[in-house]
Design brief:
The complex is a heterodimer. Chain A has a domain at 43-67 and 79-235: P-loop containing nucleotide triphosphate hydrolases (Rossmann fold). Chain A has a six-stranded mixed beta sheet with strand order 6-7-8-3-9-10, sandwiched between helices. Chain A has a four-stranded antiparallel beta sheet with strand order 2-1-4-5. Chain A is α/β, with parallel strands linked by helices. Chain A starts with 8 loop residues before the first strand and ends with a helix. In chain A, 38% of the residues lie in helices and 24% in strands. Chain A has helices at 57-64, 88-94, 111-121, 126-139, 155-169, 185-202, 213-216, 236-240, 243-248, 255-265, 277-288; strands at 9-21, 27-41, 46-51, 72-77, 80-81, 95-98, 173-177, 205-209, 221-226, 229-234. Chain B is of the alpha/beta class. Chain B has two domains: 2-245, 3-Layer(aba) Sandwich (Rossmann fold); 246-287, no CATH class. Helices cover 40% and strands 22% of the residues of chain B. Chain B has a six-stranded mixed beta sheet with strand order 6-7-8-3-9-10, sandwiched between helices. In chain B, α3 (101-110) crosses α4 (116-129) and α3 runs parallel beside α5 (146-158). The chains are: A alpha/beta, B alpha/beta. At the A-B interface, α5, α6, α10 and α11 of A face α6, α10 and α11 of B.
Chain lengths: 289, 287
C-alpha cells in the first residue's frame, strides 16, 4: 500500500448511489454507480480513467471536485473532505472540471466573458483576468472569437472555450471528463499537448477521463472502471498488458498494440507490450534489420 | 436517391456584424447507395452542410436538388424531404423525450402523415434494425445506456423511411464498444438495406475502415473527394488544414524513410498488418 499522507486526492470506500423515483416520489430503484472505490493520486500526477459508458467514471470524477458527495465512504482533496460544506469552495478552486457537453458549462453571451467567469469568482484582479483570458483563448486557438456569442460556435469550438475557462482559473488540478470528444484530431492533439505541458512544467495534477487510447499512453497511472469498481490499475504498459481483462471492461488497445498483436498471432517475433506507433516502428526496424 | 448541391454558399447572420461565411461554392453529388464520410476541423462548415441537405437551412447561394427537383421550389414538399433525408444530430439522445422507447421512435413517422398502422410497423422495424430488443420497447428511454439511447434516436429517424441517412458525429462520446456498435449498424444499413449513408467524423481510423468515399472540408469548401485509400495519401495537405491521417499512414511514412516501400500507404490496422506480414513472409522465402 502506498503511503497515503501525501496524496493529493484520495478516496476511501467511495460509494455513490442514484435513486430513481416514481411520480409520487417513492424510490423505485437504487443504482450503485460507484461501488467501493479506493484510490489515491499524488500531487502532479497525470491520471487517466478508462471504462465503458455507464461504468461509473463520470460519477467518480464528479466526486473529485465536490460536485457530488459520497453516499458512503470519504473523498479527500488536498486533505479536505468533500462532504463538508465549508470545504466546497476551496475544493472547486483547487480542481477545475471540463465536461463532455459544453452546453452545460458555458454561461455567458460573450466568449471572453465566459472565460473570465471562473477567475472572477475566485477574486482574481481585473488586469490579471484579462491576461489569463487572452492566454487561455490563445492556447485553444479561439482568441479570434473572443467577442462572439458561444451560441454561434460549433460543438468543438464550445468545447475549446470551456477548456480555456478552466485554464484561466489556473487551478492545481484539472479534471477533463471526455472534454475532447467533439474536437477534430488537431484540436484534440493540441489540447492534450497543452495539458501535458501544464502537467510537466507547472506540476498541475491532471485527471483525464477518455475513450481515446492514444491519450492514455503518456499517463503516470491508469484506472479502468467496470460496473462502479476499479477493475484494473497501473502504468499504461501494465494495464494494456491485460488484454482479456480489458476486453471485459470494453476497453480496446491502442492501434499500435492492435497491429503488434495481429503480427504476433501470425507468427512474427514482435514484442507484445507495444503501445505507440514509435515503439512499433523501432520494433519493426529491429526485426527487419 | 440523388442529392445534388450546385454552387451552394451559406452565410450566417447576413447583414449583421456577426456575418460569417460557413459554406463557399460547394458543388457535390451524392448518388444512390454511397457510403460517404465527411471530415473537417470544428467550424469548417460540416454541420451547416448537412443541415442544407434536408432543407433545415436555406442556402444563401446556389441550388439543392433532391431526386432531380429543386428543393426551394414553392410546390416542393418540405415535410417529405425531412423524412427522405433523415438527419441524425450530434448527441441525438438529448432529444429523446417520450415516456417510452416505442413512443419516441413513433414520433417522427407520426408527423410524416403515414397511416397509424404504418407508423407502428416502421417504428418496430427501425428498432429491430438498430438492435433494440422487444423487452425495451415500453421502458423509459432514460434508463437505457448511452449506446442504446443513441441507437433509439437513430431508430427515430430510420422510422421515417429515409432514402439517405445523414449523421452528424454519430460516434462522438461513445466508448469503443459503443462506437463499434454504431459503425456496425451503419455498415448493416448500407449493405443489407441498401441505404445511402453520409456521416461526419473526427476519427480518421473509423473513416478509413468503413467509408467508400471521403469528403474533406476546409473553410466552407470541399477540398478533397475520393476513396479513403486515395484521400489519406495527402498527409501533408491534410495536416496543413489541421486534420490528420490514420496513424498507420504516419507509420508507413516513417517506414518509407527507413527504406520500406508501399504502393499505397495502408489506411487501416488490418491493411498495415497485412503489408508487414507480406514483407516478413516474402523475406523468409527469399532466404
Amino acid at each position: 500500500m502506498k503511503e497515503k499522507k501525501g496524496a493529493f486526492l484520495r478516496t476511501e470506500g467511495l460509494v455513490h448511489e442514484y435513486s430513481r423515483r416514481d411520480e409520487e416520489g417513492n424510490v423505485t430503484e437504487i443504482i450503485r454507480a460507484v461501488d467501493g472505490v479506493d484510490l489515491s493520486v499524488e500531487p502532479g500526477e497525470f491520471i487517466a480513467v478508462l471504462g465503458a459508458n455507464g461504468s461509473g467514471k463520470s460519477t467518480l470524477a464528479k466526486h473529485f471536485n465536490a460536485l457530488l458527495t459520497p453516499t458512503d465512504g470519504v473523498v479527500y482533496l488536498d486533505g479536505k473532505r468533500t462532504d463538508q460544506e465549508e470545504n466546497v469552495l476551496a475544493i472547486r478552486q483547487l480542481a477545475g472540471m471540463v465536461f463532455q457537453n459544453p452546453d452545460n458549462q458555458l454561461v455567458s453571451n460573450v466568449v471572453e466573458e465566459d472565460v473570465a467567469f471562473g477567475p472572477e469568482n475566485l477574486g482574481v484582479p481585473t488586469k490579471e483576468i484579462r491576461k489569463r483570458v487572452k492566454e487561455g483563448l490563445e492556447s485553444v486557438g479561439m482568441y479570434a472569437y473572443r467577442k462572439k456569442s458561444p451560441n454561434h460556435l460549433s460543438g468543438g469550438q464550445k468545447q475549446r472555450v470551456a477548456i480555456a475557462g478552466i485554464l484561466a482559473m489556473q487551478s492545481g488540478c484539472i479534471i477533463l471528463d471526455e472534454a475532447t470528444s467533439m474536437l477534430d484530431p488537431m484540436g484534440r492533439k493540441s489540447i492534450i499537448e497543452q495539458v501535458l505541458r501544464l502537467n510537466k512544467e507547472k506540476k498541475i495534477t491532471i485527471i483525464l477521463i477518455t475513450h481515446h487510447m492514444d491519450e492514455v499512453v503518456h499517463a503516470d497511472k491508469v484506472f479502468v472502471m467496470k460496473k462502479g469498481k476499479v477493475a484494473l490499475s497501473g502504468t499504461p504498459r501494465q494495464v494494456f498488458g491485460q488484454a482479456e481483462l480489458l476486453e471485459e471492461c470494453k476497453v480496446t488497445l491502442p492501434e499500435a498494440a492492435q497491429i503488434a498483436e495481429e503480427l504476433y498471432e501470425h507468427g512474427m517475433p514482435v514484442r507484445t507490450d507495444i503501445l505507440t506507433m514509435q515503439e512499433l516502428e523501432e520494433e519493426l526496424e529491429r526485426i527487419f534489420a | 436517391m440523388s442529392l445534388i448541391l450546385d454552387h451552394v454558399g451559406y452565410i450566417y447572420g447576413k447583414g449583421t456584424n456577426e456575418e460569417k461565411r460557413a459554406l463557399d461554392d460547394v458543388s457535390l453529388e451524392i448518388k444512390e447507395h454511397e457510403f460517404i464520410a465527411l471530415i473537417g476541423r470544428t467550424g469548417s462548415g460540416k454541420s451547416t452542410l448537412v443541415q442544407i441537405f434536408n432543407g433545415l437551412e436555406q442556402p444563401s447561394e446556389g441550388t439543392v436538388y433532391f431526386n432531380g427537383r429543386d428543393i426551394s421550389d414553392k410546390d416542393f414538399n418540405k415535410r417529405e424531404l425531412r423524412g427522405k433525408v433523415g438527419l441524425v444530430f450530434q448527441y441525438p439522445e438529448h432529444q429523446l423525450f417520450e415516456e417510452t422507447v416505442i413512443k419516441d421512435v413513433q414520433f417522427g413517422p407520426g408527423n410524416m402523415g403515414f397511416r397509424p398502422l404504418d407508423v407502428e410497423m416502421y417504428a418496430f422495424q427501425a428498432l429491430k434494425d438498430v438492435g433494440i430488443g422487444d423487452e425495451l420497447l415500453d421502458v423509459s428511454p432514460l434508463v437505457l445506456s448511452g449506446g442504446q439511447k443513441r441507437r433509439v434516436a437513430i431508430a427515430g429517424v430510420l422510422a421515417m423511411q429515409p432514402e439517405i441517412l445523414v449523421l452528424d458525429e454519430p460516434m462522438a462520446g461513445l466508448d469503443p464498444v459503443g462506437r463499434r456498435e454504431i459503425l456496425a449498424l451503419l455498415q448493416k444499413l448500407y449493405r443489407e438495406k441498401g441505404m445511402t449513408i453520409f456521416f461526419i467524423s473526427h476519427n480518421m481510423e473509423e473513416v478509413a475502415e468503413v467509408a467508400g468515399r471521403v469528403l474533406v472540408m476546409d473553410k466552407g469548401k470541399i477540398v478533397l473527394d475520393g476513396p479513403p485509400a486515395k484521400v489519406f495519401q495527402y498527409q501533408k495537405e491534410l495536416e496543413q488544414i489541421g486534420l490528420g491521417v490514420p496513424q498507420t499512414v504516419t507509420l508507413a511514412g516513417h517506414l518509407e524513410e527507413r527504406g520500406w516501400s508501399f504502393s499505397e500507404k495502408p489506411v487501416t490496422v488490418h491493411e498495415m498488418a497485412a503489408e508487414i506480414l507480406e514483407k516478413w513472409n516474402g523475406g523468409k522465402n527469399d532466404s
